[in-house]
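Appendix B. One record, verbatim.
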Amino acid sequence: MINDIYKPFDNQNSNPVEITANNISFRYGKKVIIDRLSFKTTENKISFLMGPNGAGKTLCLKILSGILKPDKGKVIFNKRVRIGYVPQKVIFLRRSIYENLAFTMKVFKFQKNEIKKRISNIIKLTDFENKLSMSARKLSIGKQQLLAIIRSLVIKPNLLLLDEPCSNLDPHYTSIIEAIIKKASRQGVKVLFVTHDLLQTKRLADEIIFLNKGRVADHSEKGIFFKNSKSKSVRNYISGKLLK
């Protein structure tokens, strides 16, 4: 059913994914990018990962997704995870919209009849219904970002990792993507979202993990983060000051 389109593959298990980063470190050459990073996300919450450029947000997301392995420490999940991941730079196959979605599902061993049925349902969340044969690479930036979100959800993930999915988008597509993320969260998908956008954070986030120089400078609920953070780096960031 279309109302259940966001439900993860393990929806019989009502406990959402909880992420624990345990003393993670990562370096490029001699430069330490992530330094003994530790945090634990809250279940049933949309978690935001924020911080200045170079704080290690994207790298952290790649480690959580399994794309990169930390030099030290480990990532612990409270259950088996199926990850939907949307990187900063979205790349599509030189194929149609339908074939990009179908290929992703084939990787996760979906059967042919299930692929056709699920794509038919999930595409109703977009305006692509009559464009499935169109090349995915010919879509506008906003539509490509929307398709990237749909591609990450078509596999029924229980963990959604998003790296600035709305950067450079107009309010129309930002609103559509935010609505999808909210609905996915309500149906049991754990969301970890990287952004610099303070207004978007106020609209979507339940908790914020703030990184600075590869470490957690603050981890708090949204209300505390914006109004009463004990972290000087957070207060400076919110006020628009350059962090050193």
